[in-house]
Write a structure and sequence with these properties.
Elements lengths: L1 E7 L4 E7 L5 E8 L7 E7 L4 E7 L5 H13 L12 E8 L10 E2 L2 H9 L8 H14 L4 E6 L9 H4 L5 H5 L10 H15 L7 E7 L3 E7 L2 E5 L22 H7 L5 H10 L2 H6 L4 H9 L3 H25 L4 E5 H6 L1 H8 L11 H5 L6 E2 L8 E4 L4 H17 L3
Helix pairs in contact: 1-3, 10-11, 11-13
The structure holds adenosine-5'-diphosphate.
The site of adenosine-5'-diphosphate has 13 residues, from helix 10 and helix 12.
Length: about 400
C-alpha cells in the first residue's frame, strides 16, 4: 500500500510516493509549466538496485492531464512503483491556508473543500491551485482517502497578543485580518526532529526554528507549541527573503502610491517579487549573493548583512518571549547549506549563551548536526527539513485512524 503526497501549484504539480509501512520514498517528480509552452514531467524512481531519472516533454494543458501523466509513470510496466491505482490508499495534499478553521490535518470531504474555498481570499495565489490538486485527485483516485495538511495549522496555538494586529479589532472579528503564519509543516517537522536528536520531549523544550528557503520564516516553539512566527496574514511579513521585503514601515506603500505614482498592482508586485535579496543586489540565489559578497561586491555584502541582521533581531525577540532557549534550529535551502548566513546571524550573541563553532559550522552533511561550541548554553543545530515526509506521516496517521472504520 502506498501514500501519494501532492503539492499543487498554479503551473506545477509536485508528487512523492511513500511506502505506507515504512514511509520509504519510492518515487518523486514534478510536472512543470502546466498550461504553458514546453510543459514536462521530470521524475525519479528508486528501484531496489538503481535509481532512474527521466524527463518527458508532454503537452499538459491542465492539472487533470498532469496527474493522469503522473499516474501513467507510476504504473509504467518497466519501472513503475504500483501495478494498480488502488494501491494508493491515501493522498496527502499540501494546502497553504487553513484560515482559523483548520488546526490540524483534515480528512477531505465536501465540507472541507467548501471551507478551503472560503479561505481563498486569505491566500488568493495558493489555495486555488491547492484546491485544483484536490479536485483532480478525487476524480482520478476515487478510492483513496484524501487528506489536507495545512501550512498554517502548526501556528494555531499562537496566543491572541501575538496574532492580533493593533488595528481596529473588528478588522479581526469581521474580516479575519490577523497573523496566520506559514511553513508550519516544516517548523513542526524540524522541532520534532530536534526533540529526538536532543533526547528530550518536545514538551520540555524552547526552540527557535529558522526556515530559510526562497521564502523564509522563524517560529518560537515552547513546550511543543508554536507561540509566535514571523510571517503574518500573508507570507510577506518578517524576514528578508529571496524576492520579498519582509518587515517594512507599513506606510511605504502609501508613499510609493502618493509620491511615486505607483499603482496598487505595481506595489504588490514590487514587494513580493522585486525586493529582498533580489532588490538589494540583483539576485535571489543566496549562493550567488555569498559568492559576490566574498568577491568584494558591496551591494551583495549589504544584502547579506541586512538578511542576517533581521534573523538576529528575531532571535533576540524570540529569546525574550520564550524566556530562554534550548536550541536554535536552521533549516531549508539556505539554513541547511549556508555557513555564512548561520555564522553572521549568530555572531556576537555570546551574552545570550549562543556561541557558534565555526569549524563545525563549515562542515557539511545532509544529516542533523550540532554547530555550537561545547560551552554554548543554547544548542545551534542544522536540521534538514522534509515537508513531504511530514505530510506523509500526517496522512498515514489519518489513514490509520479511519481505516478501522472503512
Ligand atoms: P524553496 O522555498 O523554493 O523550497 P529552498 O529551501 O530550496 O527553497 O531554498 C532555496 C534557496 O537555498 C536559494 O536561495 C538557494 O540559493 C539556497 N541555497 C541552496 N544551496 C545553497 C548553498 N550551498 N549555499 C547557500 N545557499 C544555498
Amino acid at each position: 500500500m502506498k501514500i501519494l503526497v501532492l503539492n499543487s501549484g498554479s503551473s506545477s504539480l509536485k508528487y512523492e510516493v511513500f511506502d505506507l509501512e515504512n514511509l520509504n520514498v519510492l518515487a518523486r517528480g514534478i510536472v512543470e509549466k502546466i498550461g504553458e509552452e514546453g510543459s514536462f514531467l521530470r521524475y525519479r524512481v528508486n528501484l531496489a538496485q538503481r535509481v532512474i531519472e527521466e524527463t518527458k516533454n508532454l503537452v499538459i494543458p491542465d492539472h487533470d492531464i498532469a496527474l493522469k501523466n503522473v499516474l501513467n509513470v507510476l504504473l509504467d510496466g518497466k519501472h513503475g512503483v504500483i501495478r494498480d491505482k488502488s494501491e494508493v490508499v491515501a493522498i496527502g495534499h499540501r494546502v497553504v491556508h487553513g484560515g482559523e478553521t483548520f488546526h490540524s490535518t483534515a480528512i477531505i470531504d465536501g465540507k472541507v473543500i467548501d471551507t478551503i474555498r472560503e479561505n481563498i481570499n486569505l491566500a488568493p495565489l495558493h489555495n486555488p491551485p491547492n484546491l485544483k490538486g484536490i479536485e483532480v485527485a478525487r476524480r482520478i483516485f476515487t478510492e483513496a482517502l484524501q487528506v489536507a495538511v495545512f501550512d498554517t495549522a502548526f501556528h494555531h496555538s499562537i496566543p491572541r497578543k501575538a496574532f492580533i494586529y493593533a488595528i481596529p479589532l473588528e478588522m479581526y472579528q469581521k474580516h479575519k485580518i490577523r497573523r496566520y503564519g506559514f511553513h508550519g509543516t516544516s517548523h513542526a517537522y524540524v522541532a520534532e526532529k530536534t526533540s529526538e536528536y536532543m533526547g528530550k520531549p518536545l514538551e520540555d523544550l524552547s526552540l527557535i526554528t529558522v526556515h530559510l528557503g526562497n521564502g523564509a520564516s522563524m517560529a518560537a516553539v515552547k513546550n511543543g507549541k508554536c507561540v509566535d512566527t514571523s510571517m503574518g496574514m500573508t507570507p510577506l511579513e518578517g524576514l528578508v527573503m529571496g524576492t520579498r521585503s519582509g518587515d517594512i514601515d507599513p506606510a511605504l506603500p502609501f508613499y510609493m502610491a502618493g509620491q511615486l505614482g505607483m499603482s496598487y498592482d505595481a506595489i504588490e508586485n514590487l514587494l513580493n517579487r522585486e525586493c529582498g535579496l533580489r532588490g538589494l543586489c540583483g539576485t535571489n540565489d543566496m549562493r550567488a549573493v555569498v559568492k559576490m559578497s566574498k568577491g568584494g561586491n558591496e551591494k551583495a555584502k549589504l544584502a547579506l548583512d541586512i538578511y542576517c541582521y533581521r534573523i538576529k533581531k528575531y532571535i533576540g525577540a524570540y529569546t525574550a518571549i520564550l524566556g530562554g532557549v534550548d536550541a536554535i534550529v536552521f533549516t531549508a535551502g539556505i539554513g541547511e547549506n549556508s555557513p555564512d548566513v548561520r555564522s553572521l546571524s549568530c555572531s556576537d550573541l555570546g551574552y545570550l549563551g549562543i556561541e557558534i563553532d565555526e569549524e563545525k559550522n563549515i562542515s557539511s552533511s545532509g544529516e542533523i548536526r550540532e554547530i555550537s561550541t561545547a560551552a554554548s548554553r543554547v544548542k545551534i543545530l542544522v536540521v534538514p527539513t522534509n515537508e513531504e515526509l511530514k505530510i506523509a506521516i500526517e496522512t498515514k496517521k489519518a489513514y490509520a485512524r479511519i481505516s478501522g472504520n472503512r
